[in-house]
Amino acid sequence: MELRGWRTFVTVCRLGSLSAAAAALHHTQSAVSRQIAGLERELGVALLDRHARGVRPTPAGEVFRRHAQATLDEADRAVRAVREARDGPAARPLAVGATPSLAAGVVPEAIRALLERSGPLPWSLLPALSASLYDRVLVGDLDLAVVTDAPPGLPHVPRVERRFLGLDEMVVALPAGHPLAGEDPVPLRALAGESWVEDDDGSEALLRQHAARAGLVARIDLAAADLLGKLALVATGHAVALVPGVLTRALRTDVTTVRLVDPPTRGVYAVTPRRDPHPAAALLFDLLASHFAADPA
Q: CA 193, CA 13: separation in Å to the nearest integer?
């Protein structure tokens, strides 16, 4: 079998869309469809289910996807080994992922320190939620991901190594002119009458759990699509928000934060593949761990 179709199929499964896969692979959508149809004819089974918002693998397709991904990973390693034998070792690109709050400051700072120590190195940074980053490490798209155990928590997967970096205390983001600005720390009860905005289930769960411990019900009146939208609603006075402490230094100037008495926390972890780790991953982990050791907030 020709591996181009295998790579196309794995990309379609990862992105959940023929059109998105076509764009990522620089193919036309019809070419992607033909490659998938060719695989299905060759294997004699349907590999994809079509639904309203895209596609997903059938049970047989999921079995094939796992084996195809392993084969493609091994093929990529073989090509890299041959090129290194021919030309000498080349700088291997470092693909890093991080949750949006960590991608806003902590991780880029650690990458800068890494480059200062290791010299030039091609690298990329993908902001995404923890569950998505975990999946990207599993399929080989990322060499290291910085994730959190905010609800619903992190899975235990033998094929990846998860190492603790530190704790991140959640803080409350307020518009700059809020009456509580400059008060630090404050009990959650001081914010009992506020409208809250949330952008993801994990942060919302932390807020509701902390409010319940204080004997309150957080009034979450607004929803935002992402962290930037959440902060925009705070800045314009529509709501207050629970945000990661690691975000504090990267906030826009019209937003301030206050610490909470007995704040909710989330664990921050580095996730790497157990097989064929990137040579720079260990140093990047050490630099990230040093940040949390020096500045746990």
A: 45
Q: What are the two backbone dihedrals, phi and then psi, of residue 179, each rounded to the nearest 5 degrees?
A: -55, -25
Which tokens in the block code for residue 210?
């902390």
pLDDT-derived band at 157, boundaries 50, 70, 90: confident
Distance of CA 160 to the CA centre of its chain: 15
Q: What is the value of pTM for the model shown?
A: 0.67
Q: Which residue has the tokens 């905010």?
A: 150
Which residue's entry shows tokens 């079995």?
63
134-169 as b/e: b if 16+ CB within 10 A: bbbbbbbebbbbbbbbbeeebeeeeebbbeebbebb
Taking the C-alpha atoms of residue 189 and residue 213, their distance in angstroms, rounded to an integer, is 11
pLDDT tens digits for range 38-90: 999 999 999 999 888 889 999 999 999 999 998 998 888 888 778 767 765 55
Report d(CA 277, CA 77) in Å as an integer. Answer: 12
Closest CA to 140 of 36, 267, 54, 11: 11
Longest CA–CA span in the chain (Å) reads 68
What torsion do the CA atoms of 110, 111, 112, 116 make, to the nearest 10 degrees?
Answer: 100
Please work out, in degrees rounded to the nearest 5, the angle formed at the alpha carbon of residue 73 by the alpha carbons of 54 and 77: 150
Which amino acid appears at position 288 of this protein? L
DSSP 129-195: -HHHHHHHHHTTS-SEEEEE--TT-----TTEEEEEEEEEEEEEEEETT-TTTT--SB-GGGGTT-E
Task: With a cut of 60, say whether residue 127 has pLDDT above it.
Answer: yes
Write the DSSP symbol of residue 246.
G
